[in-house]
């Protein structure tokens, strides 16, 4: 069993060439091309999907591997999850052998599997070795994937970049990505290829959540007991869920209805307004917990970006009120959420939520 740590970005095809040019400035020590054919298996009642796991058979060149990815944690576009790998002689999943080799749940041996969907894509990998930390060399594999998810007669495009941490610290991974020449059109993705595949196979239609109710729930939680780390993590999760749902629904959904546009911009407004209005209070929580200077710097950057986000929302609200043009305003919101500025904001949030959580945990452990 190994733990996969990777950061995923969605990238439009027209940005790939300039992204590669920026990547080459890191002077990769290895560069490879491969075609990956993947078939995902599950039971008729979607046992693995229900438990937030993915079971796939991958064929790469002449090598065939069975992989089980378990739930793990997802923080924005940062995925941290255990995975189990088993080399195979053919493309039929040998789940019984995987269970036996890794001492997994014995009952899984009897599961009746069937193919659910496939992900076929070209992968171009770059291996980056750099000393971002004083104590250990950092090794990051950057993979550019282009291809399709296929479920019956339905298809969806794959065009994404994965940064997998092979050696080093998560802080090094985040710092490396933040230092790249990130461009407009890119954004973090908390949705895996497997999740997208299941959604396509089942013709899943995203459901619109009541963000006023969700916001009230968060405010009640924020005013209650609990440490700063938990509250910040909940706030980040709220923002990431709002972004993912917005893109899943698509521009056309909002463009056809005035009230939908008003409510969506209002949901983002509430979020940025909270950061701005509570900046000093939350900063004091940092001081009380004795957090390090790097995290304080990230926090100040987040407050500043929130002020800019709030100003952008106010401008969109004014424009929408004056022109009554849903499509125009929603298009601008989508562009803003995919801007290099916003991507840097979300990377700062990952740094704050993940690294601050572990800093506090280590501090509490040290203090007994």
Note down, in words, how this protein is organized.
The protein is α+β, with helices and mostly antiparallel strands and 368 residues long. The protein folds into two domains: 2-201, Hypothetical Protein Pfu-838710-001 (Beta Barrel), CATH 2.40.320.10; 211-366. It contains 13 helices and ten strands. It has helices at 16-24, 47-50, 95-102, 170-179, 193-201, 211-223, 228-249, 251-255, 258-277, 279-288, 293-323, 326-337, 340-366, and strands at 2-10, 30-42, 54-60, 63-69, 73-75, 78-88, 114-130, 138-151, 154-167, 187-188. Strands 1-6-4-3-2-7-8-9 form an eight-stranded antiparallel β-barrel. The radius of gyration is 22 Å and the shape is globular. It starts with a strand and ends with a helix. Residues 359-368 have low confidence and may be disordered.
Q: What's the total count of β strands?
A: 10
- Main beta sheet strand tally, sense and closure: 8 strands, antiparallel, barrel
How many distinct folded domains? 2
CATH superfamily heading of the largest domain: Hypothetical Protein Pfu-838710-001
Instruction: Tell me the series of helices and strands, N- to C-terminal.
Output: EHEHEEEEHEEEHEHHHHHHHHH
CATH topology of the largest domain: Hypothetical Protein Pfu-838710-001
Structural class: alpha+beta
Q: Poorly predicted ranges (pLDDT <50, ≥5 residues)?
A: 359-368
User: What top-tier CATH class of the largest domain fits best?
Assistant: Mainly Beta
Mean pLDDT: 88
Termini separation comes to: 31 Å
Task: Specify the number of helices.
Answer: 13
Cα radius of gyration in angstroms: 22 Å
CATH architecture grouping of the largest domain = Beta Barrel
Strand content: 25-35%
General shape: globular
Name the helicity range. 40-55%
Biggest sheet, spatial arrangement of strands: 1-6-4-3-2-7-8-9
Question: From the structure provided, what is the oligomeric state, counting identical versus distinct chains?
Answer: single chain
């Amino acid at each position: 069993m190994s733990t996969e740590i990777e950061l995923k970005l969605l990238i439009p095809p027209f940005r790939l060439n300039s992204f590669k040019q920026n990547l080459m400035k890191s002077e990769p020590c290895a560069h490879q091309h491969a075609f990956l054919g993947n078939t995902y298996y599950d039971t008729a009642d979607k046992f693995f999907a229900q438990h937030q796991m993915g079971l796939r058979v991958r064929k790469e060149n002449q090598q065939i591997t069975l992989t089980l990815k378990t739930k793990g944690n997802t923080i924005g576009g940062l995925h941290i999850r255990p995975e189990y790998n088993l080399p195979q002689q053919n493309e039929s999943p040998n789940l019984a052998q995987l269970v036996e080799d890794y001492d997994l749940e014995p009952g899984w041996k009897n599961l009746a599997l069937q193919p659910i969907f496939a992900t076929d894509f070209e992968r171009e990998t770059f291996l980056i070795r750099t000393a971002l930390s004083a104590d250990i060399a950092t090794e990051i594999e950057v993979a550019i994937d282009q291809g399709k998810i296929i479920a019956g007669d339905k298809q969806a495009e794959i065009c994404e970049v994965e940064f997998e941490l092979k050696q080093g610290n998560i802080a090094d991974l985040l710092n490396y990505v933040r230092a790249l020449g990130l461009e407009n059109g890119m954004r973090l993705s908390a949705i895996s290829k497997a999740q997208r595949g299941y959604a396509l196979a089942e013709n899943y239609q995203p459901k619109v959540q009541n963000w006023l109710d969700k916001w009230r729930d968060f405010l009640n939680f924020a005013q209650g007991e609990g440490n700063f780390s938990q509250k910040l993590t909940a706030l980040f999760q709220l923002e990431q869920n709002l972004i993912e749902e917005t893109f899943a629904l698509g521009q056309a959904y909002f463009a056809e209805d005035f009230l939908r546009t008003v409510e969506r911009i209002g949901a983002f407004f509430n979020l940025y307004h909270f950061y701005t209005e509570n900046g000093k209070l939350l900063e004091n929580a940092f001081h009380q917990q004795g957090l390090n200077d790097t995290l304080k710097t990230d926090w100040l950057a987040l407050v500043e970006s929130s002020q800019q986000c709030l100003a952008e929302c106010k401008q969109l609200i004014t424009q929408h009120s004056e022109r009554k043009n849903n499509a125009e305003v929603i298009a601008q919101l989508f562009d803003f959420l995919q801007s290099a500025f916003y991507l840097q904001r979300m990377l700062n949030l990952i740094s704050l939520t993940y690294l601050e959580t572990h800093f506090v945990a280590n501090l509490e452990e040290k203090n007994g």
